Amino acid sequence: MDLHTRIELFGGPEDGREITLPSGAAGGPLSPLPVPRDGEDPAAAYVKDHQRPHGVWIYKYTLGAAVRQSAQ
Q1: Where are the beta strands (DSSP E) in the chain?
Q2: What is the pLDDT of residues 8-47, one digit of tens each?
Q3: If 0-12 CB within 10 Å is exposed, 13-18 middle and 19+ buried, where does residue 67 land?
Q4: What are phi and psi of 28, to 5 degrees?
């Protein structure tokens, strides 16, 4: 079992960046990934969108209410 997950970020300040993170308890990546914005509101984060056939998860940049809803 792989304890790490490859993630590609789309949009926002890290667009196109690929990272590797530890997997969550269920074996998949955690979501959302908060983006520091120097205390600006609304909140910003990368939210899990879908998994490509070769195993990389795609995370899309989002602001505000969508971040709070996906965290629930």
Answers
A1: 4-10, 18-22, 33-34, 44-51, 57-63
A2: 999 988 999 999 988 877 777 888 888 876 766 568 899 9
A3: buried
A4: -105, 175
